[in-house]
Amino acid sequence: MTGYFCLVLHSHLPYVHHPEHDTFLEERWFFEALIESYIPLLMTFDKLAKDNIPFRATISLTPPLLEMTRTNGLTDKFISHMNKLIELTDKEISRAQNQEEKDLASFYKDRLEQVFDYYRNLNYDLANGFAKYAKEGYLDLITCSATHAFLPLMQHQPTAVDAQIGIGVRTFKERLGFAPKGIWLAECGYFQGLDDFLKRHGLEFFFVDSHGFWYADERPKYGVYRPIMTPSGVFAFARDPESSEQVWSATTGYPGDYRYREFYRDIGFDREFDYIKPYIDPSGVRVNTGIKYYKITSKEIPLDQKKMYNREEALCAVKEHAMDFLNKKLTQVEKLYNAFKQPPVIVAPFDTELFGHWWFEGPEFIEYFFREVAKNRSLRLATASEVLEKFDTFQILTPASSSWGSGGYNETWLNGQNDWIYLHMNELHDRMTKIAKENVNETNPLKIRVLNQMLRELLLLQSSDWAFILTTRTSVEYAVNRIKTHVKRFLDLESQFLSNNIDEGYLSKIEQMDAIFPWIDYRVYMEQKI
Amino acid sequence: MMRQEILNFLEKQPTIQEAKALAKKLGLKVKKRMKKNEVYKLLREHSTKLQELETQSESAKQTVTEKIDQIPSSYQSDRLVLLTVNPHLVYLYWDLSQETHEKINKSGNAVVRLYDVTYVIFDGKNAHRVFEASVDLGTCRSYYFHVPCANADYVAEIGYKDQERFIPVLRSNFCKTPSDYPAATSRQRWFIKGKKQIVTIGEVLIQPVERISIFSPSSAVSGGGKQ
User: Is the pLDDT at A530 greater than 70, yes or no?
Assistant: First the structure.
């Protein structure tokens, strides 16, 4: 044995819940991730477990994701979404122009039905599926900050940081039934001192980007290839830059191979309007359906000249790439082992949605890679907790403040496109702290509901997703509206509370929409003694 | 013009002049040097934003969530907040009360200052470096400072200039820029499972000096022994 490999998958979606509408475009993000990534990944684990492959992965399930998976309204919408998609594949089978198209349409139909059955068997609860493998030791499940808040930009507000972590841990316990050992810091966002907060909430480990170790307060003897311990006694792992580049890179990474499925050719955009209308957004905005018939073919040619996707060919590519990745890892660990005379730890973190959603064949890549690893003796798969058990000595250092965003620091979440958010976030934070402190002994149930809902609005405002969307310019209108909505709801509730003129109807309506963390207690927002 | 109409138009492979004419008609920015494919692309992109047919309007209404146009643009909180962007950039914003705004503005010389206070207990005068910028409070509510030092502590003030003298009115929180270089020390500390003692190897880290900017007689004794 010459080294360990830690696959880390970060599963996150912002909390998008609009019970006030029968369908809502952005709720599709959740459905697509379920259909294309989360459930196929669980199905992959089933196959591996059945064949006694000792696979290992560390997977974060963020609180917003966990909260959405328990929301009945979203489950109902998911069911009707699935029924519609399956109906669409039926239509596709009948309208197919040739055998190739027909086979692909049938492939999608089978796949959707399998996913649907699988989810039904899980009782429509994703957490169940992952928990099973965690109990059997295959997976290390970890949590995240409550609403995926980017903590480096909140470090001047210890109460906010503490509440984000505390509520993150609590959500995980509520949904999984056991305490998380580790945490994925949203966007790998770490600042010096954050480990003290993690310690206080019983978290044993977290992850940082490579330069978090490289520029730490003391030099890491083994670079990014061995976890360290912070002075507060929490362990930290750092990302291996090579593994990410091989898999993730838009230009040289595996997902760009010509045989893989083309993401941007979708029948949601290709079909004539009247035909596709019932399956896209009711406003008439065309959206991805997930039914895609073409392969990347070549990056140079335009979308309308892509060739038909061939599943067999794509699976061949997956096998090649899984082998190639394994060989690269073997070379890497051998080199590192020779240098260190100690087994290195390769940490490869990715967004879960890369596998399946963006890279359609990603779950199969993981499957084949795990199968190949099982056959060799040099590289061993391990979860983060297992790695910590394997070593007896850990270097003590404080990682440098860092993130895995563009540039490696905070610029993705703080720049000319989104800096206006922080005026509101900071103001609402201070008001929440004040009102929680002044009303710590509140006993009136209605008033307690208002205070709790104010905290929900603040937490939702703190999601890093909105700032991210404003930077990437993807769903800007939606993100801006969400920011303003949470600010407005918070201020409305605050003014009703202060004037002792609470509109219970309004409160109930908001409680149903922003229905995250039903057990929340505003008292966590008391000034912390740190 | 509806989405389908634009797509039908493009299907007919219009000449560049025709395509440009349509794009202009739709109010899109057409550049002189654009090639045909670029104009096609522009139109195609525009079309994706359009609704398909008039019949959609009713259901469209349904999906537009409660529109909120106005949230406060100021809370008059007299707050000055400093946030780190990266090792060489920090962001400062201010939210002033009417009173403070008038006080600073009256001078006609509103100024923001950023102090490098690394390893210093800041007393308003002992910063290693001071960065200063004049701001127009009427149009400007934030400022990005480029800073030379990574891994350094900063604090900011907003105030005004009275002749040459700076009168601070509000002070911000402290913020630290991240490091972007490897540590200079060769010291290593190791935790060994089951042992309380931490093993230290290599050069012991020299404590940083308290003040590195100005020598003053009062600090001369602080580094040495107990006199």
Answer: no
Q: Which two tokens stand for residue A360?
A: 């359609």
Range with the poorest average pLDDT among A95-104, A111-120, A271-280, B16-25: B16-25
- What ipTM is given for this predicted complex? 0.94
In this prediction, residue B204 carries a pLDDT of 60
Mark whether A400 and A444 lie in a shared domain. Answer: no
pLDDT tens string A329-361? 999 999 999 999 999 999 999 999 999 999 999
Q: Does A390 touch chain B (CB under 8 A)?
A: no
Selection from A323, A11, A286 nearest residue A143 by Cα: A11
- Measured in whole angstroms, the distance separating CA A214 from the mean position of its chain's CA atoms is 26
* Most B CBs within 10 Å, among A230, A423, A510, to test the B interface: A423
pLDDT surpasses 70 at B63: no
Query: Does the distance separating the beta carbons of B176 and A487 come in below 8 Å?
Result: no
Distance CA B161, CA B110 (A): 7
B45 to chain A, any CB pair closer than 8 A? The answer is no
Tokens of B2: 């509806």
Residues A1-42 pLDDT 10s: 789 999 999 999 999 999 999 999 999 999 999 999 999 999
Residue in B79, B182, B192 closest to A426 by CB: B79
Q: Do A229 and B87 touch (CB under 8 A)?
A: no
**Owning domain of residue A129:** 3-70+125-255+310-407
Structure tokens at A493: 């509730």
Chain A residues 414-453 with CB within 8 Å of chain B = 414-415, 419, 422-424, 426-427, 430
* Residue B183 distance to chain A (closest CA, Å): 5
Rounded Cα distance between A244 and A347, Å, is 9
Per the CB < 8 Å rule, is B60 touching A283?
A: yes
Q: Is the pLDDT of residue A62 over 70?
A: yes
Round to whole Å and give the CA distance between A409 and A251. Answer: 23
Instruction: Confirm whether A327 is domain-assigned.
Output: yes
A517 in any annotated domain: yes
C-alpha A404/C-alpha A354 separation (Å) is 15
Residue-wise DSSP of A26-69: GGHHHHHHIIIIIHHHHHHHHHHHHTT----EEEEE-HHHHHHH
What type of residue sits at position B166?
F
CATH number at residue A450: 1.20.1430.10
Sheet holding B129-134, edge to edge: B129-134, B110-116, B153-162, B165-176
Same domain flag for A171 and A241: yes
Q: What is the pLDDT confidence band of residue B69, given thresholds at 50, 70 and 90?
A: low
Q: Which residues contact A441 (CB under 8 A, 6 or more apart)?
A: none
Confidence band for A54, pLDDT divided at 50, 70 and 90: very high
Q: What is the pLDDT of residue B158?
A: 97
Is residue A295 domain-resident? no
Q: What is the pLDDT averaged over residues A111-115?
A: 98
In a domain, A508, yes or no: yes
Contact B185 A25 (CB under 8 A): no
Q: Which of A378, A407, A436 is the last residue of a domain?
A: A407
Q: How far apart are CA A18 and CA B63, in angstroms?
A: 10
Residues A356 and A495 in one domain: no
Contacts of B86 in chain A (CB under 8 A): 407-411
**Do A165 and A234 meet the contact criterion of CB atoms below 8 Å apart?**
no
Strands A235-238 and A228-229: antiparallel
Is the CB of residue B59 less than 8 Å away from at least one CB of chain A?
Answer: yes
In one letter, which amino acid is A201?
H
Q: Distances in Å between the alpha carbon of A108 and those of A33, A84, A289, A368?
A: 16, 13, 11, 21
CB neighbours of residue A464 within 10 Å: 23
Q: Across residues A64-87, what is the average pLDDT?
A: 97
If asked whether residues A354 and A212 sit together in one domain, one would say yes
Among candidates A48, A46, A138, which has minimal Cα distance to A385?
Answer: A138
